[in-house]
Amino acid sequence: MSIVSGMQFACILVGLFVVAAIFSAHHTWWKVPKPWGKGWARVVLYHHICPTSPPSAMNTQPHSFERQIRWLKRRKAEFCTLSELVDRMNRQEEGRFVAITLDDGYVDNFTQAYRIVKKHGAKMTVFINPGIQDPGLLDVGQIQTMQQSGCVEFGAHTLTHPDLTRLDDVGARHEIDGSIRATEAMTGVPCTSFAYPFGRFGERDVRLAREAGMVCAVGIKSRIMPWSEVNPHAMPRIGTNGKVSLLQFCLAFSRGRHRL
Description:
By secondary structure, the chain is α/β, with parallel strands linked by helices. It is about 40% helix and about 15% strand. It has one domain (about 35-255): Glycoside hydrolase/deacetylase (TIM Barrel). The strands form 2 sheets. Strands 1, 2, 3, 4, 5 and 8 form a 6-stranded parallel beta sheet that branches. The protein has a two-stranded parallel sheet with strand order 6-7. Strand 3 (about 95-105), helix 4 and strand 4 (about 125-130) form a beta-alpha-beta unit. The two termini are about 40 Å apart.
């Protein structure tokens, strides 16, 4: 091998190394997949499912959302509401359980996500803030229609979406308890699941959620854990981003994150 060809070969190797390093930083293919079955479940987090807004950390467009639901179906996912998932895991049932969760209760959760979930025989849990009045949020009629379908569970997300860690005990309890009562008044059924706004909470907030009768409560930490290590009142979820490819979604679903 000549000196020139040797240098070219070295440059090619360096280039391939750089490409591999960049790919590995954006795709966690090298991490060992977590089990999915007895003792291991999945909880996935979404916000908007909007066709007219660009893909972002807060918005997954409907065609991408449906593609992900189809992918889960092909892998024999058993769709549950969040409270159903907790119950089945506590019973040590076997199955590939997954809970689709959506925070904030946007109108597109009804016009888009609900349509797709019904179409594929899936289920979802929507967390709402009853104290916020906004035309971009679900109204009572939409909430009741979804609730009565049997494929949607509504959980509380506080009244006004504050950072609970910045409130005193009285304020935090008011936000948590008040949102639970208001959610029950709209749905006509007990509310047993809760989501911490911004994913921020402390030991006090976990205690308040538990004292309020919540079966489960979720944050936004993207992590997959064995059920034996999960605190049902501080559950992690797999975060989604509307910009990711199906490959990246699959990596996040199996490893907790699609990138470093």
